Amino acid sequence: METPFTYEYKGCHIDYKGLGFDSLLELRYAISIEQGFAFMREGIKIFYDPSTEKSTNYLRAGIRRYTPDFLIRNWQTGKAFLIEVKPSGFDDFNALSLYQNICNHYIETNKYDWEFKVIFEENIILSPGQQALFDAVLSNKILYRKRYECNSLDLRKQNGLATNIKYSGSRFPPDVFLLYLKRNKLPCNSDR
User: Fold this and answer.
1) DSSP for residue 74
2) Which of 39, 94, 100, 123 would give a disulfide with 72, using CB separation of 3.0 to 4.6 Å?
3) pLDDT of residue 167
4) What are the residues whose beta carbons fall under 8 Å from the beta carbon of 36, sequence distance 6 or more?
5) Domain membership flag for residue 111
6) Number of domains, the chain
7) Is the pLDDT of residue 2 over 60?
8) 190 within some domain
9) What pTM was estimated for this model as a whole?
10) Alpha carbon 32 to chain centroid, angstroms
C-alpha cells in the first residue's frame, strides 16, 4: 500500500497586499503572476456530488465543496484559468483527477471560458525582482496566524462581495473587476 502524500511544512497564513495566503507556495505563485494577470484567490466555491464527480447547485446530504486556489485572467490575451497549486512531490493523482472533473463540469455548466490547470512548485519561477519581493514579504511574515485573524486581512468584505480579489493595479470597482475575471467583460469605455 502506498504512503499518502503529506505536506512537509505546517500551513501558515501570510498577509500580502491585503490578501491572506495559506502557504508560501501560494504566495510565490501570486507574486509570479501579479504583473500579467488579474486574479482572485479562493473566490470560487464549487459544490459537487462525490458519487458523480460533477458540480451541483442542489445542496443536500453528501454534497462536498472544492475551492480552487486561484481564478486568473491574462490582461493581454484574456485567457482565464482556475488554478490549483501543489508542491513538488504531490502524487495524489486521484485527487487531481477529481478536481479536474469537478472544475470541467462547473466551467461547462456555467459557460465560462476558463480552463483548469494544476501548477506544481517546480513550474513557479520568480524573476530576480520577484524573488527579492518574495524574500521581503517573508522577512515580515507572521506565521501560524489564526484563521479568523487572517480572514480580516482579506478583501472579502469590501463592498459586500464575498471574494478575495487582487486588483493587480486595476482602477475598477470590485463588481466590474469580478465581471472581468469571470466573463472577460469590461465597460466599453474602459482601459486597464
Assistant:
1) E
2) 39
3) 46
4) 74, 75, 76
5) yes
6) 1
7) no
8) no
9) 0.78
10) 13
